[in-house]
Amino acid sequence: PNLACKSLEHYPQSKAYQQCRAFQKYRNTQIDKSITFLRENTFKCSIDCFKKCYQSLVNIQKSIINFLGGLYSNTRKGFYRQYIRIKRSVTSIVGTTKENAKENFDASVQKVNDLIEEFKREKDKFFGSRNALKPDQQQELEALVRQLLVEYSADETGQADYALEANGGKVVDTRCTEYTDEPRQHVVKFLGIPIVHMSKQPDIMIKAGRMPGQCFPFKGDQGSVIIKLAVPVKPTEFVLEHLSKSISVVGHINSAPNNFTVY
């Protein structure tokens, strides 16, 4: 220590002072060497550790790239195989559909041609060559048939419907007929508030349509209704429409009116 030699500074020529100074120099030299050694080794170790860490990161990056590359390649191959399979299936389905459509179209055309030929044969058989219509008579007959078809398709009766609600008809009263469809059974609500009552009211009888459910249900086997016609007329005939038996899901129309009286 420096303090150990301080008491001998008054005797610089003494052997003890000289040995003390020599020890101090040796000690300082060793300390400097140790510090230098530690600095060099610490820097070297840091460089080595950094290189190892960097190399590890590079290896991890290569591994991730290789893994993702393999995954992408396998996924792409899988998608391509699925694409080829779907393309073949679609091609097969389209081809089959085209063939079936062509066959059905050809069969339909052939059936129509057969019907036309059969109609021609029946016409020739019925009229014969002697009773064949002249061109102007043929045109007049076709025009008459078209007119009758148009009138029939309007209401399937060929006559105006004066009781139809759309034309101005109105149900005035149902007398004592008791309903079976309660108004509260079919209600359209919005946020819990009733908006429209879907009950079958008597005026459904004079609305267009005769499909299942388009009727006025009432209790018992007899009912009555008063209808106001659209305009004053003198009725000469009456028609009551109901569901056709041919399209009834139960095979019968027992609920349709069997007899009705107008007065």
From TrEMBL:
Gene Ontology molecular-function annotations: protein-membrane adaptor activity
Record's subcellular location: Membrane
Keyword list, A-Z: Membrane, Transmembrane, Transmembrane helix
PROSITE patterns from the UniProt entry: SUN
InterPro entries recorded: SUN1-5 (IPR045119), SUN_dom (IPR012919)
Domain of life: Eukaryota
Stretches assigned to the SUN domain: 168-263
GO cellular component: meiotic nuclear membrane microtubule tethering complex
Pfam families from the UniProt entry: Sad1_UNC (PF07738)
Predominant localisation class: membrane
Protein name (database record): SUN domain-containing protein
Organism of this sequence: Rotaria magnacalcarata
